Structures are given as C-alpha cells and as structure tokens.
Amino acid sequence: MTERIVVVGAALLDGGRLLAARRSAPPELAGRWELPGGKVEPGETPEAALVRELREELGVEAEAVERVPGRWPLRPPYVLYVWTARLRAGSSAPKPLQDHDELRWLTPAEIWDVDWLEQDVPAVRETLARLDAEADAGADTI
C-alpha cells in the first residue's frame, strides 16, 4: 500500500473573513479557487508546513490555530488536512506569489461566490461554521 502524502490547507481567517486563492497553475486547476497550502515535507509537522507554505505562497507570517475536523482525498497518494490560521501581528498583507493569480477575502455571505476546487468544498463548509461562530463572537464584543 502506498503511503499517504499529507497536503495542508490554510483556512486563513481575519476579521470574520476567509482568504481564497485562485489557482494560476497547473492548467487543469487554473481559474478555480482553493485554500492555500501545500505538501508536508519529510520530518516536518503539518503545522510547520502550513506556516512555511503561507510564507512561500503568500509572503505572510501566520500561525496555525486549530485543525478543521475531517480529511479529504486528493489524487492518490495525497490527502488534504485543513487548519484554521491567522496572520501574526506585523505580518504583511497576503500577495499571490506562487501558483495563484488572485486573492480574495470572503465574508460568510460571499463564500460561495467563487468557484472552489471540489476537494476544498467540504473543508470550506467546515470552516464556514467556525467563521460564523467567530463573527457571532465579534458581534458580542461591540
């Protein structure tokens, strides 16, 4: 049996919004939206991979917050795990540096305005519940 290779996705949250990244490559994925991230390297924890991938792909300093329940199969041997993440204080704003040509911060009402990659849809649904809870908590502090 082939060993699974873990791919980490970042549900990057900020002010009740979720960051979506539009793929620019490969051609079969170009134009579709995803949670940014990438493969976990040998000897690397998924959380460390998430931080590294966000730095490489978006030029930001972020931290993993909590794992989103579930795992989603990609093309074999890859499997997707998702963590919520947040920007560290003082981080620059995200920029599409690698594999993406556009970024968009989406409110819960806008989440389905973009054409998500199929494998990201269940993770986005799970994240949306957290986003709604974060928005509700924020409303309580006003």
Automatic annotation (TrEMBL):
One of its GO terms (molecular function) is 8-oxo-7,8-dihydroguanosine triphosphate pyrophosphatase activity. Its EC number is 3.6.1.55. It catalyses: 8-oxo-dGTP + H2O = 8-oxo-dGMP + diphosphate + H(+). Residues 3-128 form the Nudix hydrolase domain. The keyword ATP-binding does not apply. The keyword DNA repair applies. This is 8-oxo-dGTP diphosphatase. It comes from Streptomyces adustus.
